[in-house]
């Protein structure tokens, strides 16, 4: 191989490496659930800025029937691994506070024990005025700041495939549960996520990287044809 060929081959390898190294863009994972009284829809979006720092954004809409009112006052989920610190940095109002982070320390029976979440009443079961939560027909967004190790290996779907554990798991293990209180009929509800998460998309090569890779292959082919003619 000549020096020119070697340079072109190296260019192709570099372009290929750039193509493979491009990460997939983070996309919001959908969540939703409907119970006897309450219902919700929402999204969960995870972004890791480093192996030790990440953010988790949860957006929720209270879609419960308007006639019976009701407020979404808490929600819980699980630690997929590596998270050692959680802080709630943004919420719909000042009444919301973080739950956890503790291993199986948040009781959401009959769906078992969860690791963290947010609440208007300092607990999943609730307390205080239900009206501090998200009203029927309204929406709210929550931002969590996460610290730990190995956070680059997590994704939206890892939160939605990590399930709760016992005790108090009579209705089955779940990845996410929303709490509703203050219905007009005096009832309350606990509603799990029933939306099946979609696997994350495969990394998509950047157009510039693909163009560079193609140009390198074309140039290498031209050099080889010129050598055969010579």
The SSE order reads HEEEEEEEEEEEHEEH
> What structural class do helix, strand and pairing data support?
alpha+beta
For the largest beta-sheet, the strand count, sense and barrel status come to:
6 strands, antiparallel
List low-confidence stretches.
8-25
Q: Work out the number of β strands.
A: 13
Count the DSSP helices.
3
Q: Which fold name is given in CATH as the topology of the largest domain?
A: Immunoglobulin-like
Distance between the termini: 15 Å
Q: From the alpha-carbon coordinates, what is the Rg to the nearest angstrom? A: 24 Å
Q: Tell me what portion of residues adopts beta-strand conformation.
A: 25-35%
Task: Walk me through this protein's architecture.
- The chain is of the alpha+beta class.
- It has two domains: 3-21 and 205-229, no CATH class; 29-192, Mu homology domain, subdomain B (Immunoglobulin-like).
- Helix content is 20%, strand content 34%.
- It starts with a helix and ends with a helix.
Keywords, please?
230 residues, alpha+beta, Immunoglobulin-like, 2 domains, 6-stranded antiparallel β-sheet, 5-stranded antiparallel β-sheet
Layout of helices and strands, plus pairs?
Layout: H1 3-21, E1 29-34, E2 39-48, E3 53-62, E4 69-77, E5 83-90, E6 97-99, E7 106-107, E8 113-114, E9 116-119, E10 134-135, E11 139-148, H2 156-159, E12 176-183, E13 189-192, H3 207-229
Antiparallel strand pairs: 1-2, 2-3, 3-11, 4-9, 4-10, 4-12, 5-11, 6-9, 7-8, 12-13
């Amino acid at each position: 191989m000549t020096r020119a060929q070697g340079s072109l081959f190296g260019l192709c390898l570099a372009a290929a490496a750039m193509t493979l190294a491009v990460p997939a863009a983070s996309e919001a994972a959908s969540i939703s659930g409907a119970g006897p009284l309450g219902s919700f829809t929402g999204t969960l979006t995870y972004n890791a800025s480093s192996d030790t720092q990440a953010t988790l954004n949860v957006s929720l809409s209270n879609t419960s029937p308007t006639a019976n009112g009701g407020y979404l006052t808490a929600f819980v989920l699980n630690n997929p691994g590596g998270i050692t610190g959680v802080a709630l940095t943004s919420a719909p109002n000042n009444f919301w506070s973080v739950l956890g982070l503790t291993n199986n320390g948040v009781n959401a029976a009959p769906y078992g024990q969860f690791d963290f979440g947010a609440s208007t009443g300092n607990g999943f079961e609730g307390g205080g005025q239900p009206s501090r939560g998200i009203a029927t027909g309204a929406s709210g967004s929550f931002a969590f700041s996460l610290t730990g190790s190995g956070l680059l290996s997590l994704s939206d779907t890892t939160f939605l495939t990590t399930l709760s554990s016992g005790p108090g798991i009579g209705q089955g293990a779940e990845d996410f549960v929303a709490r509703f209180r203050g219905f007009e009929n005096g009832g309350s509800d606990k509603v799990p996520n029933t939306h099946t998460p979609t696997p994350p998309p495969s990394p998509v090569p950047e157009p510039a990287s693909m163009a560079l890779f193609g140009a390198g292959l074309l140039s290498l082919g031209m050099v080889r044809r010129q050598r055969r003619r010579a």
